[in-house]
């Protein structure tokens, strides 16, 4: 080391590099040295000696031989003795390190903790001390070394000895090199070592070795991705909630929107969400909202398509209806009807579609496109139900005709609810007294709706009566079941209506003029009678209409319901029924002091038209208004017969049901590929021997209660039942979607894009299905769109 110091001093003083001393005064300690370096050193006569922990003697020998060729004998002998003494000391340390290293390498995974009987005892003058086994549990780092025959610290030996850390000199030699075997003071020594800085550092280094830097970075990034996924789930679930409730996501300003405020509310209890939202604004932007809404809507529509495709016999029907939204865009609502595995008819809404035109060809093209996108074959279409518009139900160019050209088995049914609405309108026009009375009710409801002053006045007057106040409403020609409620509201509050109109008539405004005219009409007794007569018929038709709007209603059930209503109305066409109604009207007129019910003025026609015969003139008001009542009933009966029993495709369904009820299979079965004539005949014979039924609905109930094995015997009977149940009765499902459209696309949301509107409509209508959507699955689909999202969010496990 003296030669090295002199050499360094000469370099500092002169600024030149003199030749190195020949003898190897520099000892380099290398954990795992290279043989090539030592060989090169020996060949060139290098004076540097490399000391290698594992097998380094050859390097020193080569260095010594090369260095002694030109050395001075007197100097070399001293240097040789010094080098030999240093080598002996280093060799001793190396052997000790090799022993410790060998112990650790043999037990690299965990410390060596043998049974105490295999550990040397400590003999004192008066007793013998043993190593205690419970010390392993108290100090898990205890490692027994058979070489030193003592206890070492597993982490200190592994870290300080092998890694040569700078803190190795501060380590307790008893636990890092020599071994500890003083069992008398074991617990005190163990505790002191465990609390030492060198031990803590060794444990830290060992942990870092087990978890390297790249792994730590990867773990940190994985934690960030997990946090990002958590925040994304919050965003998706918030969008899901707002879409379910039909609420707007955006506001006039971004921070005023429901989505932003909902996330802000959630972030109060979620610090990670609050921090992430402050940094990442892209994932709450309108395009991302549209994408998430579309993923949610598509998930629901796909589940509907899968439900239809997984049917044992693929049969379905189409329900289509159109309307204009608040921005004037023509929206076509498309719905499916199918019979599920439990033989229960299901009607489901699949979306609102903007059509380029309202012709039957355009609507049929849109329907075919929807079927293609959902992978539902047109060949399995068995029914279609629309309203009576020419572009939908037209015989030659309507949508039903266009679809029938592609699939002749798609039977067309005119919507039963629309038919009943048309029948009700015709019935109300059949009698002048009923027509006028309903018109005054409509005008009264319109006045209440348009004039806030009259509405407040009527509410105040009605509140003073004993009965509960009911708001007045106008009649709507396109709403099916509002006429009865409007008539009842007037009749039950007739006195309040007269008082309000009389008080409002004193007002000098235009509203007062309208109120005065209505007061004169409502004070006539024939108005009261007209309302009572109309109510007798309208309530029956509205009950039937509500029945036809059910999703589970069938064609057979519709026919029986219509027959029941017809029988009821015909039963009212008699003297007793009319007399009862007439007496109720007279009693109300008398109690309110109104103008009595009189025969209207009869116009005498010219004799050149009537000839010599005299015209029949009613002798009493009762006789006159009885005729008007009968006119209304006769009109309803004729309309029911004409609109419901003269549809050609309904006759086909009736023949199919006759096959089910009688067991006589005819040629119509051959048109349906899913029906086998011979098998159906055999199965019907077996089925009828054990069961009694009168309709397809009763057959469905019987089969629903059968065991699976027994039900499998009648697969053809089940197919026929499905065919009878799959035909829709009305387009009420599409009409219900229009109600959702009015809630969603309001004046404030009139600029909503079509894709966003359709997605929100599907989510809002199918709330039960939306609740079952897996948010993680939606998030994963959102993430998989591009590499940037995969980098930010990773993958869900």
Task: Write structural notes for this entry.
It comes from Carassius auratus. Residues 54-98, 600-621 are annotated as: Disordered. InterPro entries: DUF4371, HATC_C_dom, RNaseH-like_sf, Znf_TTF. By secondary structure, the protein is of the alpha/beta class. The protein folds into 5 domains: 2-94, no CATH class; 107-210, no CATH class; 291-415 and 731-765, Nucleotidyltransferase, domain 5, CATH 3.30.420; 419-603 and 616-645, no CATH class; 648-725, no CATH class. It contains 37 helices and 11 strands. The strands form 4 sheets. A 5-stranded mixed sheet has the order 9-8-7-10-11, with helices on both faces. Strands 1-2 form a two-stranded parallel ribbon. A hairpin with a 5-residue loop joins β7 and β8. 34% of the residues are buried.
């Amino acid at each position: 080391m003296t030669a090295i110091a002199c050499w360094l001093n000469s370099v500092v003083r002169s600024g030149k590099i003199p030749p190195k001393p020949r003898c190897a005064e520099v000892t380099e300690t290398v954990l795992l040295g290279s043989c090539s370096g030592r060989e090169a050193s020996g060949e060139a006569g290098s004076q540097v000696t490399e000391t290698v922990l594992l097998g380094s003697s050859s390097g020193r020998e080569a260095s010594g031989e090369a260095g002694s060729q030109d050395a001075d004998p007197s100097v070399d002998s001293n240097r040789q003795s010094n080098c030999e003494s240093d080598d002996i000391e280093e060799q001793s340390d190396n052997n000790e390190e090799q022993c410790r290293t060998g112990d650790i390498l043999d037990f690299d995974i965990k410390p060596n903790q043998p049974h105490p009987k295999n550990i040397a005892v400590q003999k004192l003058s008066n007793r013998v001390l043993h190593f205690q086994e419970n010390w392993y549990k108290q100090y898990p780092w205890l490692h027994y070394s058979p070489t030193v025959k003592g206890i070492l610290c597993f982490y200190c030996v592994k870290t300080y000895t092998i890694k040569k850390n700078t803190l190795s000199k501060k380590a307790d030699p008893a636990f890092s090199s020599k071994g500890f075997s003083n069992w008398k003071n074991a617990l005190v020594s163990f505790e002191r070592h465990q609390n030492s800085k060198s031990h803590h550092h060794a444990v830290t280094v060992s942990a870092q070795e087990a978890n390297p830097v790249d792994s730590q970075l990867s773990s940190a990034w994985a934690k960030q991705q997990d946090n990002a996924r958590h925040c994304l789930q919050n965003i998706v679930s918030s969008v899901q909630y707002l879409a379910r409730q039909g609420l707007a996501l955006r506001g006039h300003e971004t921070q005023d929107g429901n989505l932003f405020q909902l996330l802000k509310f959630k972030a109060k209890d979620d610090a990670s969400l609050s921090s992430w939202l402050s940094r990442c604004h892209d994932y709450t932007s309108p395009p991302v909202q549209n994408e998430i809404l579309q993923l949610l809507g598509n998930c629901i529509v796909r589940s509907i398509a899968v439900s239809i495709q997984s049917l044992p016999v693929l049969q379905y029907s189409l329900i289509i209806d159109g309307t204009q939204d608040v921005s004037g865009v023509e929206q076509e609502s498309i719905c499916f009807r199918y019979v599920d595995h439990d033989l229960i008819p299901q009607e489901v809404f699949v979306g609102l579609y903007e059509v380029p035109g309202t012709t039957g060809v355009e609507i049929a093209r849109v329907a075919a496109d929807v079927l293609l996108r959902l992978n539902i074959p047109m060949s399995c279409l068995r029914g279609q139900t629309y309203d009576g518009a020419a572009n939908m139900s037209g015989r030659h160019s309507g949508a039903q005709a266009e679809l029938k050209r592609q699939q002749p088995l798609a039977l067309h049914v005119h919507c039963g609810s629309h038919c009943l609405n048309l029948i009700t309108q015709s019935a109300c026009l059949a009698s002048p007294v009923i027509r006028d009375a309903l018109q005054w009710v409509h005008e009264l409801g319109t006045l209440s709706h348009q004039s806030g002053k009259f509405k407040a006045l009527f509410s105040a007057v009605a509140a003073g009566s004993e009965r509960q106040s009911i708001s007045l409403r106008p009649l709507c020609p396109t709403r099916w079941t509002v006429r009865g409620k409007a008539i009842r509201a007037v009749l039950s509050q007739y006195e309040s209506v007269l008082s309000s109109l009389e008080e409002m008539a004193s007002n000098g405004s235009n509203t007062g003029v309208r109120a005065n005219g209505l007061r004169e009409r409502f004070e006539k007794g024939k108005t009261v009678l007209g309302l009572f007569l109309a109510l007798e018929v309208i309530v029956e038709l509205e009950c039937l209409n509500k029945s036809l709007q059910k999703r589970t209603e069938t064609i057979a059930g519709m026919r029986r319901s219509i027959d029941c209503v017809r029988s009821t109305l015909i039963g009212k066409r008699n003297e007793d029924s009319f007399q009862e109604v007439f007496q109720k009207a007279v009693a109300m007129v008398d109690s309110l002091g109104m103008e009595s019910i009189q025969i209207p003025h009869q116009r005498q026609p010219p004799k050149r038209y009537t000839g010599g015969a005299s015209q029949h003139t009613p002798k009493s008001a009762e006789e006159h208004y009885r005729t008007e009542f009968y006119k209304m009933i006769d009109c309803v009966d004729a309309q029911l017969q004409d609109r419901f029993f003269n549809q050609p495709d309904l006759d086909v369904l009736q023949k199919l049901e006759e096959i089910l009820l009688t067991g006589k299979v005819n040629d119509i079965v051959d048109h349906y590929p899913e029906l086998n004539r011979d098998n159906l005949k055999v199965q019907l014979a077996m089925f009828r021997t054990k069961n009694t039924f009168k309709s397809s609905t009763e057959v469905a109930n019987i089969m629903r209660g059968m065991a699976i094995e027994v039900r499998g015997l009648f697969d053809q009977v089940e197919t026929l039942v499905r065919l009878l149940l799959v035909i829709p009765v009305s387009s009420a499902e599409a009409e219900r979607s229009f109600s959702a459209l009015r809630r969603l696309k309001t004046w404030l949301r009139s600029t909503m894009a079509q894709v966003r509107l359709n997605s929100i409509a599907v989510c809002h209508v199918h709330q039960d299905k939306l609740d079952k959507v897996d948010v993680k699955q939606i998030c994963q689909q959102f993430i998989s769109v591009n590499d940037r999202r995969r980098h930010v969010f990773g993958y869900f496990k």
